[in-house]
Amino acid sequence: MTQVMETMQLEFSEKLSAIDNSKALNELRVEYLGKKGKVTGLMKEMKNLSNEERPAYGQKVNELRNTIEGQIAELEAELSKKALEEKLAAETIDVTLPGRTLEIGGSNPIDRIVEDIEDFFIGLGYEIKEGYEVEQDYYNFEALNLPKSHPARDMQDSFYISEDILLRTHTSPVQARTLEAQKGEGPVKIICPGKVYRRDSDDATHSHQFTQIEGLVVDKNIRLSDLKGTLELFAKEIFGSEREVRLRPSYFPFTEPSVEVDISCFKCKGSGCNVCKQTGWIEILGAGMVHPNVLEMAGFDSKEYSGFAFGMGPDRVAMLKYGIEDIRHLYTNDLRFIDQFIPTEDGGEQ
Ligand code: FA5
Q1: CATH fold group of domain 109-341
Q2: 139 lines ligand 1 (CB under 6 A)
Q3: Which of 46, 74, 306, 328 lies 20 to 30 angstroms, CA to CA, from 195?
């Protein structure tokens, strides 16, 4: 090698020894071996040499280029091995780290109560039926013995979509539809859970949208005592085995006789407290014997068939059962409220 080449080689080796990443290595490669690089520059010198000098010079430059290329390749291999090792070290899984737990959601207390009530009635052989939230005036009122302009329509003020279409005010239209579909043939044994709507002003116990569960049994020889027995079993299942049921006379246009159903207070056991407003009893639903007009309008012979129906508000049942003081908590999706109903592993609540 010439003196120039030796100096270049030394200078290159020195620079190479300071390099610790592939970007810098590439820059060095370009500096020496690129088109305008230092070694390439030496090649270009050949044209100034005589024919005799050229072969020896050419060989020396080639040697220099091979050496430099070899050194670069060596460092390149070293750097990529180091990069791989670093990557592997960084990606190592630390099995001692505690796992990340998934947050489990809870179901709304209304859904739970509805499921409990459904389970109970399914156990007694009832079928679940669902109707329409957007309903015809005919099924919501007329087929239930509430012709247009009947004063009792005021008991359930509604949201109308057109003169004959409205958001249903109760789940009772499912009764009317189911009876009609039976074409006068019993038995019928259904419960109908679902959302209903009323133009009530929202307060602690009223919501413009709430949930109801309707029950209907129609067959030959169905009596008021069958209704009472069914509701007694229901109250014991949902509110505890010591509960008693009391029927009070009431009025619904679609039942005759009509009753309000109270259960003995599960908190004070009848002695009087804030839950039962010191009466010892809690009102849970409206019910009665299906009015003969309703049976006849749906095509049933009311002399042959009779039945009972009831309609309850699971929102209020959930409020009583879980001690919720404001119905609006059930609908505002505040996680601080809902999270209290997340089941724990032992089957309780958080
Ligand atoms: C009815 O809706 C009747 N369809 C029930 C019925 C069915 C009677 C079959 C006879 C035979 P009522 O308007 O009382 O009845 O409502 C029933 C239940 O819905 C009430 O006991 C109450 O728990 C609930 N409820 C009524 N209005 C509201 C409201 N604005 N917010 C929350 N719950 C309500």
Answers
A1: BirA Bifunctional Protein; domain 2 (3.30.930)
A2: no
A3: 306
